[in-house]
Write a structure and sequence with these properties.
Layout: H1 8-21, H2 25-36, H3 39-72, H4 81-101, H5 107-117, H6 123-131, H7 136-141, H8 146-169, E1 176-178, H9 189-197, H10 199-204, E2 207-213, E3 216-221, E4 224-229, H11 230-239, E5 247-248, E6 250-252, H12 254-258, E7 269-274, H13 292-316, H14 319-330, H15 337-340, H16 348-362, H17 364-370, H18 372-381
Parallel strand pairs: 1-2, 2-7
Antiparallel strand pairs: 3-4, 3-5, 6-7
The chain binds zinc ion (ZN).
Residues 306, 310, 351, 354 line the site of zinc ion.
Length: 398
């Protein structure tokens, strides 16, 4: 087993539970002594210590960056009025949910839910729970009283129902794109997005606006956003190169919608993009056959389709599709280096999906040749998502 794939946490957990199972104190000590002599135990111990050191170092690094930012860029901290409004809407929805929605639930629905907890699996209820990826099987099999379980089911169902309402309210509304007029590489970003995703699919993505600030770099430290003019950022990077890892190219808020505890109702959310300064698309292996002068444009467009794909994954990949997708991803090699950085992260399957959409919409041949099964999954489940084709109205760029 290579060091990289050795899960020291799992090893230690298993050892701990093995020792726990043994009631005899003397025997417990024996197991521990025997294991301590093994190579595996020593490896797990070393990895645990190393992880601790890395954590401490990154804590210290964050502290240094934060001190520097507070000293020099305090005036660049960003309180985006759109985000403040978004939080207000979510808070209002929470109140309304408690004081109105819950009180007005029909007796019919309550009866159905109670029957559901008793084993009567109504197909429509299952479909709603799957839509919000609610794990009802674990809930029903787990501990807790019937009333608490019924309440959790009810909340999940109401949340799921609010998705269709939100899509309905979003009908015929175009997504507001702004800031793209300042970047000659992607003047046609909105047309491009509507062409590759299709208006109906975009409506289901519940996006309020796509805002691009090509002249600003977003540095996030401890949850604080510093919006820096590009030249100011470059100065900082000269002094502290590690700030590079805190640079955010894009931001979406889908997780606010999918978090059942936070948001009680689906709402429209914005997507933000920041400067691509310092990005090196020429180093990406999937661009190897793309002409040099076209790489940056495709990279930028791909970053937008990646972010939009987060919405597709969050709202339109139900529990059944996810099961299929996870199996497929687990037997596939990393599709991009970026996706690879999420291999041990809980968002792994999200990022594999969004990177797949990036490839499909910017280098479709690369995806089809190297990952035919993944490409097929996308075609089967989201036939609306189209491959990249050079934009005719912008031929001077290409
Ligand atoms: Zn992503």
């Amino acid at each position: 087993m290579s060091e990289k794939n050795f899960d020291y946490k799992q090893y230690r957990d298993e050892l701990a539970s093995e020792i726990k199972k043994e009631s005899d104190k003397e025997k417990r000590r024996e197991i521990l002594q025997r294991t301590q002599g093994t190579e595996e135990y020593q490896k797990a111990k070393r990895l645990k210590q190393e992880t601790f050191v890395v954590k401490q170092e990154s804590k210290a690094q964050t502290e240094r960056l934060l001190q520097y930012a507070q000293k020099h860029y305090e005036e660049c901290t960003n309180f985006d009025p759109d985000i403040v409004e978004l939080i207000n809407v979510i808070n209002k929805n929470q109140e309304k949910f408690k004081n109105e929605t819950l009180l007005n639930v029909s007796d019919e629905l309550i009866d159905k839910i109670i029957a559901f907890t008793e084993g009567n699996r109504d197909e429509r209820i299952i479909a709603l729970l799957k839509r919000v990826n609610f794990d009802y099987k674990s809930l029903l099999a787990g501990e807790g009283d019937e009333q608490t379980k019924a309440r959790a089911l009810l909340e999940a169902i109401l949340k799921a129902q609010s998705y269709n309402e939100a899509v309905e309210q979003n009908r015929n509304k175009e997504i507001d794109f702004s800031g793209f007029e300042n970047d000659p590489d992607i003047l046609d970003a909105k047309d491009f997005i509507y062409r590759v995703f299709d208006a109906e699919l975009l409506q289901k993505c519940l996006i309020s606006k796509v805002k691009y600030a090509p002249d600003k770099i977003n540095v996030q430290i401890n949850g604080i956003d510093y919006m820096l003019p590009v030249d100011v950022y470059i100065e900082w990077e000269k002094v502290m190169p590690e700030v590079k890892n805190r640079k955010f190219r894009a931001e979406s808020f889908v997780l606010w919608n999918t978090d059942t505890n936070f948001s009680k109702k689906f709402i429209l959310t914005p997507v933000y993009f920041y400067s691509f300064c310092g990005e090196q698309p020429e180093q990406l292996n999937y661009f190897i056959h793309i002409p040099e002068k076209e790489k940056m444009r495709r990279y930028k467009l791909g970053t937008i389709t990646h972010e939009i794909a987060h919405h597709v994954y969050a709202y339109l990949m139900d529990a059944d599709k996810r099961t299929q997708w996870k199996k497929l991803v687990d037997r596939t090699q990393t599709i991009t280096e970026y996706a690879n950085s999420y291999v041990k992260h809980k968002l792994k399957y999200d990022e594999f999906f969004t990177e797949t959409v990036r490839l499909k919409t910017t280098v479709p041949d690369y995806l089809k040749t190297n990952f035919p099964e993944i490409d097929q999954f996308l075609t089967d489940n989201f036939p609306e998502i189209k491959s990249y084709s050079p934009c005719k109205t912008n031929s001077d760029v290409l």
